[in-house]
Amino acid sequence: MSQRNRTWTIIIVLLAIIATYIALPGTTTIPIINRNVTVRQGLDLSGGSQVLLEATDCTAAATNSGLDNARQIIERRVNGLGVSEPLVQLQGDCRILVELPSIDNAADALALIQQTGRLEFVDAGLDAYNDGTIIRTSGNPTPTIGISTTASAGNIPISPSLSASPAITAANSTSSTTNVSSTAPATSTTGLLTDTLPTHTIPDKVYQVIMTGADLDATKLAVQLNSTTREYDVAFTIQGQAAGTFAQFTTAHNEATSGARYYMCIVLDNVVQSCPSIKTAITGGSGVITIGQGGVDEANRLVSLLRYGALPVALQVVQSRTIGPTLGEDSIRASVIAGIIGLLAVALFMLFYYRLPGLLADIALLLYTLTVFALFKLIPVTLTLPGIAGFILSVGVAVDANILIFERTKEELRAGRRLAVAVEVGFERAWPSIRDSNISTLITCVILFIFGNTFGASVVKGFALTLAIGVAVSLFTAIRVTRTLLHLVLDNSDLEERKHLFGI
To answer: What residues does 90 pair with on adjacent strands?
Structure first.
């Protein structure tokens, strides 16, 4: 066996082990990278929650396209929080329908989309607040969201056991603290759910706004893993004149120079979302917020909040309810059985018609299935019935490539070529046809994905994505895996006089 084939054999074995581990039903996390790899199912397979929103000013929303902009922001927000393939669409001129898969509690669904107002970064001084606490800011000193205004200074809701908080530092800093023990998030904000917010007591103190969400560069917000502390950070960059204002503030208020712990709360419509302490001065306009024990989910939530803080129109909840799968259990079970039967039929055809190469193609097909499913869990891809159809269709594409290769190999064998030469020539002459057909399919997938993204057809996007992933992986398994397996067999056995094993 050549060194090249030996190297590819090792790579394929390692790939098979990794893909099998990830694809196993019991695998939900990858310990090394702390990544959740559970299977995500769409509305048609798992059900979820449905929320109907209505603009408070229908005329303004209809005339300035504000409702459509709000729809796009809501869709990006719930996607950024890990709720893949939501259904967010307009209903008439005043309403937006939101359906979120795999969220059985309507209250959880509301918590994902209710934060719709003014995002502010306020100087909290030495006061630390738990998430969900309502405070006054210079941007809105008199919030009108069902709050009792009779609070006194002694009623400031600071946790008495608060010993640490998320930290905000310069981008090149590695110092951090543990996460705050936060209370449950508030159930409402301005312009949304105004009739269901419980009464809260807030302090009389008004906190000064340092900057707003508009001062952040949304394109540079990112979640990153701190290589030193192994905790997740949220990297941010401030743009415009606000960078100088922020630099002056953090220089005058930071723990490194003063020894006191100063807090800068991130507030959405007067509701505290996070309250990090300022560890060092941030003069370069870039810094990180250390999440601590909150983990990657909390980091993603904060990024989504900072990136999509405000909606262009005020919305109120008209209806919220839990919905079941749009497909019944019988339909889902029948679809799975049909997919298994299809895979077995293809595998048997390859085995009986092409014999030894067909057996090796079936092994490559098994590796293809494991790899694609592992990628679905890693990316992650939300599985809907159209998405599953795209995956099964890509199985046919993978087999089609093997058929072209084996038929070309049989032609070379009939022409009198030696077995090893016939196999190589078969792969080389089949490659242009395989390449062109797969490129054509990928172009179609790109068009479908753009169409689905433009018109909010998440079902079309899911089909295009799963088909594209399947086609890309099938190119690797058909060309490289099958070829390596054939060389592994030919290099370790004498099959020159057994051409019947190749269908001759």
So the answer is: 96
How far apart are alpha carbons 68 and 47 in whole angstroms? 25
CB of 169 within 8 A of CB of 290? yes
**What is the residue-wise DSSP string for 440-499?**
HHHHHHHHHHHHHHHHT-HHHHHHHHHHHHHHHHHHHIIIIIHHHHHHHHHTTS--TT-G
How far apart CA 58 and CA 501 sit, in angstroms, is: 72
pTM of the model: 0.60
Instruction: For 377-392, write each residue's pLDDT tens digit.
Output: 888 787 888 888 888 8
146, 220 contact by CB (below 8 A): no
Q: How far is CA 218 from CA 75, 235, 298, 338, in A?
A: 16, 11, 18, 45
What average pLDDT does range 347-373 have in this prediction?
91
Q: Residues 281-313: pLDDT tens digits?
A: 888 888 888 887 777 878 887 887 777 665 667
Task: Judge whether 271 and 133 are in contact, CB under 8 Å.
Answer: yes
Residue 443: other Cβ atoms inside 10 A: 11
User: What are the structure tokens assigned to 278, written together?
Assistant: 């300022």
Distance (Å) of CA 6 to CA 9, 12, 113, 365, 488: 5, 10, 53, 20, 9
Closest listed residue to residue 223, CA positions, set 31, 22, 33: 33
Q: What whole-number distance in Å separates Cα of residue 106 and Cα of residue 283?
A: 43
